[in-house]
Specification:
The protein is built from 10 helices and 11 strands. By secondary structure, the protein is of the alpha+beta class. The protein folds into 2 domains: 184 residues, Jelly Rolls; 109 residues, Arc Repressor Mutant, subunit A. The radius of gyration is 22 Å and the shape is globular.
């Protein structure tokens, strides 16, 4: 275990396939972990700068001591188990405001597409990653004694992995951050969400089945059978529940996967089409162009040209 681990993004690396990519308005945004550390503020240390905001995301978990910090320009009590997640444009200052000691874990990251930074609130980013509609949560949140030590363990692992600076550190860090996002989704955003019952639950199961098996041949009869209703009733209720037809949703999942493969692999368009469930290369190309606005070949060419012309920016201060 590292004695005093601290990570700051310094290496200039080429774009590479990674976890935690998010699609927003037909664009792909990639996650960059910028900073990860364990911060200890002693007796004599006080807030030494004013509250500020930027286009980044902070996950901050207090693990020792009790004090005050500033979030959304208001004093907030922090104690072991207090969680604050700050998003783009949200005023904050996590230095303690009173005498005493406090220790917290912090992970800072951004979502970027070239020079453009994603500005969505954290719960909306998490919704893009999980595929579930998640509610707005007002921070700070006090995690229970069973939840926050587990979160602290994963955040500490992320800090140590990123601080090690090994060739696989960035990949491993993204794996751990993905775990952290899953923990937050379950313990914070879904904790009080009632379980769906009856037809609603079966439709949700069908939706998840489509997401997991979009590369297979899925017919309306098969999907309706999973929902235990007739095909006509299934199509009407699926669209009522999710705002899109079952086949439309299946094609949406396939094209989303195809976009990712076009950006992250050297597979041919024919291979990608088959991988995501299209037996006919020309049908794949027509559907892709209809949904993405350009052909698969043009999409890959434009995305590659954009990545090669984008300078790597330094870490925001």
């Amino acid at each position: 275990m590292l004695t005093n681990p601290n990570y700051v993004k310094a290496l200039q690396t080429n774009p590479s396939p990674q976890l935690l990519q998010a699609y927003w308005r037909s664009h792909l945004y990639s996650c960059n972990i910028l900073h990860a550390s364990r911060e200890f503020l002693g007796l004599g240390e006080r807030a030494n700068f004013a509250s500020h905001a930027h286009m980044l995301y902070h996950i901050v978990l207090f693990i020792k001591g009790e004090n005050e910090v500033s979030y959304l320009d208001k004093p907030r009590i922090c104690r072991p188990g207090t969680l604050i997640i700050s998003g783009p444009g949200e005023m904050h200052n996590f230095f303690k405001r009173k005498s005493g000691e406090v220790t917290y874990l912090e992970v800072t990251f951004e979502y970027r597409r070239g020079e453009e930074l994603l500005r969505l609130p954290f719960h909306e980013v998490l919704a893009l990653l999980t595929g579930s509609s998640l509610p707005f949560v007002k921070y700070p949140v006090e995690l229970d004694e069973g939840a926050w030590p587990q979160l602290a363990t994963r955040m500490t692992a992320l800090i140590e992995v990123m601080s090690a600076g090994l060739p696989h550190s960035v990949f491993s860090g993204h794996v751990i951050l993905s775990d952290i996002c899953g923990m937050l989704a379950r313990s914070v955003y879904m904790a009080n969400k009632p379980e769906a019952t009856g037809l609603a639950a079966r439709l949700e199961n069908v939706r998840r089945a489509i997401e997991s098996n979009y590369g297979q041949a899925l017919g309306i009869e098969d999907l309706a059978s999973m929902a235990q209703v007739s095909t006509g009733y299934f199509c009407r209720e699926f669209k009522r529940a999710f705002g899109i037809t079952p086949i439309g949703y299946l094609l949406q999942c396939r094209i989303a996967a195809a976009r990712s493969l076009l950006l992250s692999t050297r597979m041919s368009c024919r291979e990608i089409g088959m991988r995501v469930g299209f037996a006919d290369e020309y049908y794949f190309s027509r559907v892709f162009k209809k949904m993405a606005g350009v052909s698969p070949v043009s999409y890959r060419r434009q995305s590659t040209a954009c990545a090669q012309s984008t300078p790597i920016s330094s870490l925001p201060k």
